Amino acid sequence: MAQQFAGRTMYLIAILIAFLSGNGQAASSDLIKKACTIDRGTVDLDICIATLGSYDQISTATTMQTIAVHIAQVGISNSTATRSYIEESLAKPQAASTKATLEDCKEAYDTVIPSFNSALGEIKKDKEYQTATYDLLLAATDYVGECEKSVVNNKMVDQVIQSGNKAVEVFALSAYQIASDLQKP
Ligand SMILES: *[C@@H]1O[C@H](CO)[C@@H](O)[C@H](O)[C@H]1NC(C)=O
Question: Which positions make up the signal peptide (predicted)?
């Protein structure tokens, strides 16, 4: 009797877990799709969905606000890692044009990272979604654009910097999209 009861309880718990996790997944893939359906910029939908989906903390988010928070946090750690790489490269001997681009990119990331940080505070604490959209849009366009322009002008080929720049666009514009949806009355 007790065993039968335990068995039934386990069965019900299993169903409950399946239900909850199934729901969670459906909700977050909808949220990722929403984040990646961006009305500004040139981020590819499939690349955006694959990128955001590869981060657990983003793909398990269940509300608009928390997914935006997690995207901004991943944006901060990703762009900080890119800046560290740039700094390490600058510490090594480099050709003059490479050095110039690395310096432009360091300056660019010195503006990108604080923008992600401001947006994070605005979304998480202040619920100032409109201000967050400005910061995120600037990070994805003008700010990271300084590095992108310099890379193109000096014909630099650097996978870490180029994928880092694309990643800034993906994270900043997807968080921008959610923040602008949140801002709507
Ligand atoms: C930043 O994120 C992108 C997309 O996930 C990834 O390809 C890239 O390796 C990351 N860069 C760093 C320096 O971690």
Answer: 1-26
